[in-house]
């Protein structure tokens, strides 16, 4: 029993190493962007960051292709910035375009709750194509939970959003509810929906 569990643990660790390896970094660098891990390494004091939800399993879906990567495309955790406790979630665009599914959202909500409980800032490093269509309503429900936390945290703790890539669909609403929003030059975009949807709706 223990051997089976350990093998499963090793398999998840191997998958994470692959997705966070040189190929993923090269893909981001070719677009003029850093990886989620590189961003966290720059943001936090060296050796202080602790990841949460590292092996969280993505939700099962009834249709479409979903890359089953532990962590579900977002790195969450806490550490110190100039000696001060801070919480963060950094979306990983190399995993399904950083799209938000149920597990992805649950991880963000948990780290937001931790930040509120301890009175510490929460920082979102946004690099996402929006809701994960394959997960349907579950994905949209995940966004509502995040927005609810944004409202609860307003005036209680500092909320900071840094747009570092595309922020499409649901991904733009949370930054709009935070205290500060920053956008990087050349690589960041914010739009509620794509041009084809706008054209269809407005005829």
Structure description:
This protein has 203 residues and is α/β, with parallel strands linked by helices. It has a single domain (2-202), classed as 2-enoyl-CoA Hydratase, Chain A, domain 1. It has seven helices and seven strands; from the N terminus they run αααβββαβαβαββα. It has helices at 2-19, 22-29, 36-43, 102-118, 137-153, 173-177, 195-202; strands at 50-52, 74-81, 84-91, 122-128, 159-168, 180-183, 189-191. Strands 1, 2, 3, 4, 5, 6 and 7 form a seven-stranded mixed β-sheet that branches. Helix 4 packs parallel to helix 5. The longest helix has 18 residues, at 2-19. It is globular, with a radius of gyration of 17 Å.
Number of helices: 7
CATH class: Alpha Beta
Looking at CATH, the homologous superfamily is 2-enoyl-CoA Hydratase, Chain A, domain 1
Q: What is the string of SSEs from the N terminus onward?
A: HHHEEEHEHEHEEH
What is the CATH-assigned architecture? Alpha-Beta Complex
Q: Which blocks of ≥5 consecutive residues have pLDDT under 50?
A: none
Give the overall average pLDDT. 87
Q: Which labels suit this protein?
A:
alpha/beta; 7 helices; 21% strand; 2-enoyl-CoA Hydratase, Chain A, domain 1; 203 residues; single chain; 40% helix; 7-stranded mixed β-sheet
């Amino acid at each position: 029993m223990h051997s089976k569990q350990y093998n499963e643990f090793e398999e998840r660790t191997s998958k994470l190493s692959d997705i966070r390896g040189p190929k993923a970094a090269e893909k981001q660098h070719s677009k003029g962007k850093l990886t989620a891990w590189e961003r966290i390494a720059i943001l936090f004091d060296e050796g202080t960051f602790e990841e949460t939800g590292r092996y969280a399993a993505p939700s099962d879906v009834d249709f479409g292709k979903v890359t089953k990567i532990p962590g579900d495309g977002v790195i969450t955790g806490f550490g110190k910035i100039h000696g001060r406790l801070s919480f963060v979630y950094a979306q990983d665009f190399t995993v399904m375009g950083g799209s938000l599914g149920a597990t992805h959202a649950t991880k963000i909500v948990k780290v937001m709750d931790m930040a509120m409980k301890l009175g510490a800032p929460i920082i979102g490093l946004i690099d996402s194509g929006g809701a994960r269509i394959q997960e349907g309503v579950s994905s949209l429900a995940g966004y509502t939970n995040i927005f609810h936390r944004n409202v609860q945290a307003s005036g209680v703790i500092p909320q900071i959003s840094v747009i570092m890539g595309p922020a499409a669909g649901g991904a733009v609403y949370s930054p709009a509810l935070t205290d500060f929003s920053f956008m990087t030059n050349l690589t960041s975009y914010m739009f509620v929906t794509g041009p084809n949807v706008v054209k269809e709706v407005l005829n």
